[in-house]
Every structure is written in C-alpha cells, then in structure tokens.
Write a structure and sequence with these properties.
The chain is of the alpha+beta class and 268 residues long. The protein contains 4 helices and 15 strands. It has one domain: 4-Layer Sandwich (Glutamine Phosphoribosylpyrophosphate, subunit 1, domain 1), CATH 3.60.20. The strands form 3 sheets. A 7-stranded antiparallel sheet has the order 3-2-4-1-12-11-13, with no helix packed on it. Strands 5-6-7-8-14-15 form a 6-stranded antiparallel sheet, covered by helices on one side. It has a two-stranded antiparallel sheet with strand order 9-10.
Length: 268
C-alpha cells in the first residue's frame, strides 16, 4: 500500500525529515517505488513536485534539500501502484481548483468500484489518469462544489460535514485512508491498511502527533519541522501512515476524520 505524510504548522515549516525518510521508505525499506510527490501550500496556491521514479534513487530530493521549501501545510505521498500505470498522471498528490483556490487529495488504499457508488457524480471534474484515487477526488470535489461556489468561504462545520459524508460513502469499497486540504485546514481520514505480520487490512490506517518547540533554538531534523521566527513557539501537527519517530503517535480510530490547522487538532 502507499504511504502518506502531512504537516500543518503554526508558522511555515520544512519537511527536512522527509528528504531522508522519504528516500528510505520509497524503495529502500519499503515497496513504495512507483512514484512520489510533495505538495507545499503557498496561500491559495500549491507548489507541487512529483516524479514517477523511486524516491530512493531520485536526484530531485537533493534539489528539495537545497531549497528547503517552507509551508504551513505540506502533504506527501509514496506510491505502490495498484491502479493505473506508473506515470505522472497517476502520481499523487492530486490537485484541482475550486472556488478560487487549489484543493489537494492523497489516498492510501483501494477503491476499485468507486464508479459504482449510487451517489457517484463527477460533475464537470474529470480525471487526468486512471486511478481509483483520482476518481474519488473528482467525486469529492463535486460534492464540495456547492459550498465552495458561494460568495464566502464555507464555515468549518460545513466543510467537515461534506468530508465525513464522503468518507462514509467510500469506506465500504476498501481501505480508504486519505488526506485532503483546502489550504485553510488539513482533513485526515484513518480507516485500515495492511499491518506487518497480519493478513488482510486492519486499523489503524493513520497516526497523528501534535508537538511544539522553540524553533529558534532547536531543529527537528528527525520529525520534519525547522524554521526560525525569533523565540516564538512553533506548533506542528503531523499525520502519517506509520509512526515516523519514537514519540507517542496516536492511532486513528477506524473511520475517524480529524481536522488540523496551525499546528493543532481542531475540534469541530
């Protein structure tokens, strides 16, 4: 299965962790060698970097190490292809414009019969590739369209309602772990995934961790957040398919949807 990692921070942070951890998981310690991608929000837009090569052998990671892009919301994906060819059009994260801003989606699992859902509707959104993940994203965008085409950005509770309904629709189809962002918040749905030493799919599908540090005095090279803002307190929320450090990562309950923003878990 694919692997997900995301970050939502109080102040812009970089994912220095991912440049090593990505490389290790993307074809060295894991089977996720069919492409990778990292998305950095910049206001309402996104800087997206994707490749179809294994992260373990990608020279592009050295480019990222040198440029050290910073953002308040960062989402990354390591691909193990189960649907669609190994090509850029099938490499996540996927992004689309809606309501004058970029929306982002990354999925881990299999939703082979997504097109058979009674509620399935793409509207005017069309996939560029052939994956079930992109079809799910297009369907989600259609369901979000009504609230995002209003004059004002929708309240969080309305966004959360659409995301939780979408998660409930796709859970019966197979493992449905996903991360979605609209640039304001990070939404994460933990379902189930393959677990070491066990057959089939089992929860947890995702883990989360919130942490803080005095960012001027400490660099968190192993956990992915380092930036300087005087002596301000940096707060960071992390979501990942598997725990990435020896800290106390919290597993998602099966079917749980969480919202994160500015380094905190947001209670809806």
């Amino acid at each position: 299965m694919c692997e997900l990692f995301s970050l939502a921070s109080e102040y812009p942070a970089n994912v220095s962790f991912s440049l090593e951890e990505f490389k290790r998981h993307g074809g060295l310690s894991g089977p996720h060698k069919d492409g990778w991608g990292i998305a950095f929000y910049e206001g309402k837009d996104i800087r997206l970097i994707r490749e179809t090569d294994a992260a373990a052998t990608s020279p592009c990671l050295e480019f990222l190490r040198q440029h050290r892009y910073h953002s308040n919301i960062i989402v990354s994906h390591l691909r193990m292809a189960t649907s669609g060819s190994i090509s850029l059009r099938n490499t996540q994260p996927f992004i689309r414009e809606l309501g004058g801003r970029m929306h982002l989606f990354a999925h881990n699992g299999d939703l082979i019969d997504i097109h058979r859902l009674p509620e399935f509707d793409l509207g005017h959104f069309r996939p560029v590739g052939e994956t079930d993940s992109e079809l799910a994203f297009c369907h989600l965008l259609k369901t979000l369209q009504q609230i995002w085409l209003e004059p004002e950005a929708p309240a969080l509770d309305r966004r959360y309602s659409v995301i939780t309904s979408f998660a409930a629709q796709i859970r019966p189809l197979g493992p449905a772990n996903f991360i979605y962002s609209d640039g304001d918040y990070l939404f994460a749905h933990g379902h189930k995934r393959s677990q070491p030493g066990r057959e089939g799919y089992h929860p947890p599908g995702l883990y989360w961790l919130c942490r803080s540090c005095r960012i001027a005095a400490e660099k968190q090279e192993s956990t992915g957040s380092s930036h300087t803002h005087g002596d301000k307190l940096q707060k960071v929320a992390l979501v990942a398919s598997v725990p990435l450090t020896d800290e106390r990562w919290v597993p998602f309950e099966e079917g749980e949807v969480m919202v994160f923003g500015k380094g905190r878990r947001v209670i809806t």
